[in-house]
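Fold Annotation — chain and its backbone
Encoding — discrete vocabulary of local shapes
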Amino acid sequence: MKKISTCASFFAGVGGIDLGFESTGRFKTIYANEYDPSPVTTFRQNFKDANIECKDIKDVEPDDFQNVDVMMAGFPCQAFSIAGYRKGFEDEKGRGTLFFEFLRLVKAKNPRVVFLENVKNLISHNGGNTFRVIREALEDAGYKVIYRVMNAMEYGNTPQNRERIYILGFRFEADYRNFKFPDPIPLTRKITDIIDFQHPVAEKYYYTPGKYKGDIYERLNDEMDDPDTVYQWRRVYVRKNQSNVVPTLTANMGEGGHNVPLVRVPSGIRKLTPKECFNAQGFPNDFCLPEGLKDSKLYKQAGNSVCEAVIERIAEKIAYALDENVASRIVCPSCDKEIELESTNTICYCPFCGHRIQE
């Protein structure tokens, strides 16, 4: 039986990254941290065994959780997103610098793998300088870094146009060498697999004359002429998705109808339900959305989350890389840290405490 690797999750949201890792059967989240109490409610309902703390990551101390094999973070992307203000590290709300709070904990715990997810624009923000700082900070902490921009509809067989950058740091050279990102796969799932075009839903999801300020309904009624695709109201105009997939979900979908994907169905013009938005992220049908939470909260949770299917495919490759490197590792008898043995020498020194090890 292969080892189950332990994980600690930060900026955990509803647990999309955790779900992708756990779906492989090779990883288990034992600790999670999230600042917003709304997604914490959803996380707790779906991860009964994980200890999730609802507090600012700045208040998390290394002793708050045990050593783990993997530390992962979908750190806040608003400061880098094309859809946001793109202020990066200078974001007035401090969201751009929260990566360094995560790095503080990584340096203290020295996990075998670091996993990060963020918006595609991170790689080009500020002329590439923001990403360079992040990559070099991980390298300075002792990690070999590899990254790739991946689209959910190309790598997750999920009909959503969602490009994200995935960054991995490996503490061991052999793990790094053994890891390969998954290849693209055909998109066989259709929007009809995740959106119910046939049956009526609750009245609150429909657009009707006079429901919203201005002539939004009239504009939608005039321009939404294709019942087999997804549209989006973008502040002042209607956008049709030409790829016949769901457009990129955003965190502000629940704010006055802006950015919510829309469909024309026999019963009228309506927005996607929160459940359908989670479907568009590749979440399984049995993923629970807590009763009593406002739709605006659920839309935000879905938009802030990740494509679960892409995460799962990456996690499978991580598990394979770790399996391949079993023979070249040992636990230091002095400090109990796991280290990599030199393949050409039976004597090495622990990089953490300097203890001389001879096999």
